[in-house]
Model the fold of this input.
Amino acid sequence: MAVQIRIPTPLRRFTGGAEEVSAAGATVGTVIEDLERQYAGIKERLCDDEGQVRRFVNIYVNGDDIRFLNSLDTSLKDGDEVSIVPAIAGG
Amino acid sequence: MTTATADSVGAGKRADRQVPPRAYSILDLIGNTPLLDVSGIAEGLSPRVRLYAKLEGLNPGGSVKDRAALWMMRRGIESGELTEGKTVLDSTSGNTGIALAMIGAALRYPVSLVLPENVSTERKRIITAFGAKIIYSSGLEGSDGAILLCREILQKEPERYFKPDQYFNANNPQAHYESTGPEIWEATDGRVTHFVAGIGTGGTIMGTGRYLKEKNPAVRVIAAEPEDALHGLEGLKHMASSIVPGIYHENELDGKVPVPTETAYELCYRMGEKLGIVVGQSSGAALYAAIQIGRDLEEGVIVMVFPDFGDRYLSTNLWHGWVDWAKKRRSR
Done:
């Protein structure tokens, strides 16, 4: 299962500047594991020590917040788009 | 005149706020916000260290940004850059947008604002209620994306717009040099030893810091900054990974305290229950930094800025997080 992940500016230092990358997995959780394999260090930014998505990180699947779906267990199908959206910085 | 009779330490002792009892324009109610003693929230501080928060949420637009927006618009009119028929255009993460929309409405200038699409629903609706137009930029690009889109729009029709340009306009820090700084100096009878604020544009910390250091060069000016590029402290910038505002001069600061998002959120939750104030996440960040500084002091008067209240974040991560926090606390 391959999905596209849209990477926000603050995380592009992990993806070599790429705005969009692809990763494999049947759920958001497994896609994050695959992202970590490809871009070491990225998972720690997204998840806390207990493996849960950090409170301030927003992950959307096709525009829907996974908080209101099945969180990390939200299932994915080929071609889904996952977006990681940061908080709004200042001003 | 205050008539509070509660027996808390500061209740009813003085009424610092000098807002006029009757105003002819909403703009006359900007500024003169009170300092609130929040020392009680911090454990392990010397009793001779006091923490005061300047409650900027009491401005009519609900945030510290009323000051910068007012100064930029007034000086724009005075200099002839903002004239009848022009539209006020700027990029913002929300609070400046609300302030510009409010002031635009009061002075009868149309306002267009570029906002990242994921800005909180409350902010979008408040801006719309003032009759301003919103142009959305990509949420993935954050406020830097809004800055760049705003520049593009301006380039196409420069004669149509007045761009306050909060990141580069010297009247932004000047607002704080002329209002926030003197208010803090007076409210503390010149006893302030440390000034703490987050950095959004840098206007608050630069202008207030400059004023306080002129009055007393020993005053330490310290910024609260998100500890990482990916953070949840809406309104604050992680400078190393952002477009650095032209008005921000790091060499004028005495230090920066890196703030973890989740600890700042928890301080917001605690303030709700312990102090009776619900504030935004940037206030939690300021308090976190102030407590860190206070722990190293035997004596001091630390003044921090609480940029807004929490009611405009009820649909954001801050309050999603509160639900988790409350659950965890119950299960302890």
